[in-house]
């Protein structure tokens, strides 16, 4: 039950401060992470391992201050038992996500609680590598100053990259959204500058990890997370394994061809979901429709996809028509993936909520209608409650996961 894999090269993090010394300790830490507070007997019943072995390893983790114990909060048994938790004061990690629109960072304590966040909105699309790497380092150092724990307690940094990554080499090979971002030695450069272990991972992996750890407590073995924004992508966890595919390129839901339309996509194709239904696409469609319509959007100077979603929530007719059509298409595309992969849960990006309850209902109906009856019966569809810094949170969770693994 607790076997899972992130397909990340965590064994390459040579200087990582491992909190678990062996497999039993790893199992205990992962169970406490997902079920805290939990008693020793709770851990015994989840693992099936002998009580003595669990007690011994738990005692070691308590003596090292990796776990803490509080009184009587595990109410599942007949007696009040003491509950084990990860110690939030043991240390912290930093997740940093960068892309064409800027840099977001999160510091997270060792109990998976975010303790500081920062956002730097800056156009990185055309900057050179050196400048971007310097900005990333400066952001890490600045968030370290914002928190109370000393820098020595920082266990590591995760760099969440918008491009195609070679995680064996620690290199970002290519990013279509950042002109000069190719063959960048991210791991080596940041480790040298920051004197900390650095993990490099892609955005999709980071985002599904964030919702899985922070929202679902790792409770769903078969999960799809649908990212919705300027692009559209799909994070996948199947049979408790995150799917990243050859070259970490899995999940390009946005480039599923869904229409005979000649709408050109940024991938070079035509009729892609992204070209028809993303935030960029609905902004474009709305801009073209404003002239001939009496819409509240005509007052906007530079129209964005978020403006269109919010106008739909306010029942603007033009916006509603465009957003409903986009979400209908998104629903059909996601249903196709559901029919192939049979997840237990589909979790949508919280951005969808901006379109208002009626548009959300259109999405749900279109998905339900297109999913096979057999799949529909067991499927749960939700909108995520994580609203910001999702990639950075996932990066932080990824490196903390690595620390918990012997
Ligand atoms: Zn495309």
Description:
This protein is α/β, with parallel strands linked by helices and 406 residues long. It folds into three domains: 20-86, Arc Repressor Mutant, subunit A; 92-210 and 390-404, Nucleotidyltransferase, domain 5, CATH 3.30.420.40; 219-383, ATPase, nucleotide binding domain (Nucleotidyltransferase, domain 5, 2-Layer Sandwich). It is built from 13 helices and 15 strands. It has helices spanning 23-35, 40-47, 51-63, 129-146, 186-194, 203-215, 273-277, 279-290, 305-313, 317-341, 356-370, 373-378, 390-404; strands at residues 67-74, 81-86, 92-99, 102-109, 114-121, 154-161, 164-166, 171-174, 182-184, 198-202, 223-228, 232-238, 241-243, 345-348, 380-383. The strands form four sheets. The protein has a five-stranded mixed β-sheet. A hairpin with a 6-residue loop joins β1 (67-74) and β2 (81-86). α8 (279-290) packs antiparallel against α10 (317-341), α9 (305-313) crosses α10 and α10 runs parallel beside α11 (356-370). The longest helix is centred in the last third of the chain and has 25 residues, at 317-341. It is globular and about 70 Å long. Zinc ion is lined by residues 255, 265, 267, 269, 272, 274.
């Amino acid at each position: 039950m607790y076997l899972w894999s992130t397909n990340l090269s965590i064994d390459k993090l040579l200087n990582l401060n491992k909190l678990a010394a062996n497999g039993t300790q790893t199992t205990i830490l992962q169970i406490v992470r997902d079920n805290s507070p939990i008693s020793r007997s709770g851990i015994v019943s989840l693992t099936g391992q002998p009580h003595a072995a669990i007690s011994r390893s738990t005692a070691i983790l308590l003596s090292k201050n990796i776990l803490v114990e509080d009184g009587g909060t595990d109410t599942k048994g007949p007696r009040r038992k003491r509950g084990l938790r990860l110690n939030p004061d043991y240390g912290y990690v930093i997740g940093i996500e960068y892309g064409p629109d800027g840099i977001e960072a999160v510091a997270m304590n060792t109990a998976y609680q975010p303790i500081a966040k920062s956002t730097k909105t800056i156009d990185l699309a055309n900057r050179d590598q050196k400048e971007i790497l310097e900005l990333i380092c400066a952001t890490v150092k600045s968030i370290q100053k914002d928190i109370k724990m000393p820098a020595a307690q920082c266990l590591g940094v995760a760099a969440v990259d918008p491009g195609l990554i070679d995680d064996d080499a620690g290199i970002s090979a290519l990013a279509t959204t950042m002109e000069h971002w190719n063959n960048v030695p991210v791991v080596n450069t940041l480790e040298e500058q920051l004197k900390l272990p650095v993990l490099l991972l892609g955005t999709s992996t980071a985002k599904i990890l964030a919702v899985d750890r922070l929202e679902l407590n790792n409770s769903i073995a078969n999960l799809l997370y649908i990212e919705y924004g300027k692009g559209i992508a799909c994070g996948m966890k199947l049979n408790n394994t995150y799917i990243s595919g050859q070259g970490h390129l899995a999940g390009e839901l946005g480039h599923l061809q869904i229409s005979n339309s000649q709408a050109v996509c940024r991938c070079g194709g035509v009729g892609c979901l992204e070209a028809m239904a993303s935030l960029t696409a609905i902004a474009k469609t709305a801009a073209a429709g404003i002239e001939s319509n009496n819409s509240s959007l005509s007052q906007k100077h530079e129209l964005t996809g978020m403006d269109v979603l919010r106008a739909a929530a306010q029942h603007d007719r033009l916006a509603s028509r465009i957003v409903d059509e986009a979400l209908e298409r998104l629903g059909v595309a996601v249903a196709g993936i559901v029919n192939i992969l049979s997840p237990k849960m589909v979790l949508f990006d919280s951005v969808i909520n901006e379109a208002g309850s009626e548009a959300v209902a259109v999405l749900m109906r279109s998905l339900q209608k297109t999913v096979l009856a057999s799949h529909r019966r067991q499927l749960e569809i939700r909108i995520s409650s994580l609203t910001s810094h999702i990639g950075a949170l996932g990066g932080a969770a990824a490196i903390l996961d690595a620390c918990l693994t012997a």
